Amino acid sequence: MAIEPESSTERKKLQDTLDMLKRQDPTLQVQSSETGQTLISGMGELHLEIIKNRLLRDFNLNIKFHKPQVSYRESIERGVEVTGECRRLIAGQQLFARLRIRMEPAPQSKIPVMLISAVPPDGLPPELLSAALEELKALGEGGGKIAGYPLMKLKITVLGGESNEQSDARAMKIAASDAFDMGLDKGGKVLLEPIMRLDIVTPEDYLGDFVGDLQQRRATIARTDSRGKMTTIEAHAPLKELFGYSSAMRSLSQGRAAASMEPLRYDPAPPEVIKAFEM
Fold first, then answer.
1. In terms of pTM, does the model score above 0.70?
2. I need a surface site. Which of 48, 146, 155, 232 has the fewest CB within 10 A?
């Protein structure tokens, strides 16, 4: 959620207050955006709402709040092999290096970006290979090319490279960066959206209303169970479609239903979600 103080005087008070809240709550993350806004990230909509209320009521800060945004991830669609190159004249010195990598999706990986070296022992000098791996690691920890969200489910294998007397660590890092960008482009950019597991307990009379509402939210119904006059529903739905769900649930059931939500996985987002970032 993006927040902005209404005046420069409030900016310092806001920063001091957020620093204190971060010490109290390690799950709260705070960073500055390129537009100068302050971004707060939490464990969900309710968490952000609690932080918002504390800033307004407990600390009496004059702040503008924007609508919550989903934290997406990015990856690639298919595996590709690419070769990055450096042929540059820097400070009067001609630099040269080539690096060949394979970049591919890694849907089962628990590491966001898996980096592997498959270079033969005599393939590259150790200092150049080290420079390439260092650069690829730094790039992998950065953002993707759709909207700059963190990369995940990605595997990068260094296959080999070329060097000569004009090669040094700078040249190899440039070649690694070129290969990395080429891999993201040729691999096909994918936006991954967080899918939540939603467990709902509702009187059986409202089951149809809940199912209809969930379908409109792009949810899939994993199972339903009857327990007397109550029915439990397990649904998997994109977080983007679940903002304000607590209010909707109370409206659908006249306040008689309850629900819990937890992160389940990341899935490719539909084209209409990606188009929103390209506008």
1. yes
2. 232
